[in-house]
Write a structure and sequence with these properties.
two-stranded antiparallel ribbon, single chain, alpha+beta, elongated, about 150 residues, three-stranded antiparallel sheet
Length: about 150
């Protein structure tokens, strides 16, 4: 564990210096196992202890990148990620939760993140729906408490 912000920044700068050139995808840095992928002007990392299963970390990284690519319509670049940071973070949250890999299926991750919200503006409330709801509640109350 990196105990201070200063240590974390030094770790991130050192890791970036080692991985900024496209090439490999796995490195052991400062006793951590780091997997990374380049995507145009971005580098995505998954970092774990040296004892972690490299294949699982790779599966999580690939699932995250594939899901993000689906959500951003193959426009995984700095500008589109920043414009859709909410989707990128939700996607990450659906992949890894508190350091535990919870999903490695990119389609499932993307579908959970992009699920449409219920549009409440289409619900029409009129006198008939209010009377119907009142009648339904009244019937349930009569069955439960006797005549009303």
């Amino acid at each position: 564990q990196l105990s201070s912000v200063k240590e974390q920044k030094a770790f991130e700068k050192g890791l970036w210096d080692k991985t900024k050139k496209p090439g490999g995808d796995v490195i052991i840095y400062d006793s951590y196992l780091a997997l990374y992928k380049h995507s145009l002007d971005l580098i995505f990392y998954v970092i774990g202890p040296q004892s972690e299963n490299e294949l699982m970390l790779n599966a999580a990284l690939n699932a995250y990148l594939d899901a993000l690519s689906m959500l951003l319509r193959n426009q995984v670049e700095k500008r589109s990620v920043l414009e859709n940071l909410d989707l990128a973070l939700l996607c990450l949250d659906e992949t890894i939760d508190e350091g535990v890999i919870v999903e490695t299926d990119s389609t499932a991750i993307a579908s959970r993140v992009s699920r449409p919200r219920a549009d409440t503006s289409d619900i029409v409330i009129n006198e008939q729906t209010i009377m119907s709801a009142y009648q339904s509640v009244r019937e349930k109350m009569q069955r439960g408490f006797g005549p009303f």
